[in-house]
Amino acid sequence: MNTKNILVTGGTRGIGRAMAIALAGLGNRVAVTGRNEQKLREVARELPGGIAILADVTDAAHSQSVIDEVTTDIGPIEVLINNAGIGGGTDGPQLLIDMDADDWWRVQETNVRGPMLYTKAVLPGMIERGEGIIINVGSYLSIRPSPMATAYGTSKAALARFTDCLAVEVADQGVQVFCISPGLVLTDMTRDLPFINDIPEDDFQRPEDVAGLACELVTGKYGKLSGHFIHVKDELATLL
Ligand code: NDP
C-alpha cells in the first residue's frame, strides 16, 4: 500500500486518537496534536514513526510552525485531518440564552477557525505537489437542529460549507476535500449528555468506525472525488 504522511489535529482522545492509531497501523507516518502533554506522550507510543505535538488549534501564531515541525519530522503533509473540536463552552453544551458570548466564540475558533488555519498552512505544499487530501470532521448536528447546539451546530454547518467551497477552489490542483460526519460516538465529548446512560454501550458508534472511514478515504482510491459530506450516521444520532 502507498503510505502517507498524515496530520490529525486533536489526536489525544476519542475519534482523533482512534483515527491516528488506525492510520499508523496501516503503515502511514502520523503526527497528532493536542493540548494535554500526558495524553500526547501516551498516544505517541502507539504511533511508530510518528510524532505528537503540543498545539492548540486556536493559536493562530503557532499553526504554521506546527506544519513546519511535522514536515521536518515525518515529511511533507499529504493528508490533513481537521478533527480537533469542542462541543460547547466551559460548561459544556448550553442553551444560547445561558451561553457566554466568549464561549460561543471559543466553539467557532476551535471548530471552524482552527481547520481554516491548518488548511491554509498545508495547502501551498499540497498544491505545489499537485495532490493532497483534507478531511474535516463535521457532525450530524450541522444538518439537524438540536437544542443546546446553536454554537456547535453553527460551527459544524460552517465547516461543511468550508469543505465544499474549498473543494471547488482546489479542484483543479489535485487536492481533495471531504467532510465526514459521525453520528453519536461515546467519547469525552458526549459522556455527560443527559440521555447517555440510558443507551447500551454496544449501541454507540465507535471511534474505530469513524477511523475506518478515514482510512478508506486516505487510500487514494477516490482520486476524482472531492467536496463530499459523508455520513457515518447511526440510529442514535436522532437522539441529539
Ligand atoms: P473528544 O472530546 O473525545 O476529543 C477531542 C479532541 O480534540 C481531543 O484530542 C482534544 O485534545 C482535541 N482538542 C480540543 N480542543 C482543542 C484545541 N483547541 N486544540 C487542539 N486540540 C483540541 O471528542 P471526540 O473525539 O468525540 O470529537 C472529535 C471530533 O469529532 C470533533 O470535531 C467533534 O466535533 C466530532 N464529532 C464527535 C461526535 C461524537 O458523538 N463524539 C459526533 C460528531 C462529530 P486535548 O484535550 O489534548 O487538547
Automatic annotation (TrEMBL):
CDD domains: SDR_c. It comes from the Bacteria. It holds the Pfam family adh_short. PROSITE patterns: ADH_SHORT. Keywords: Oxidoreductase. Belongs to the short-chain dehydrogenases/reductases (SDR) family. This is SDR family oxidoreductase. It comes from Seongchinamella unica.
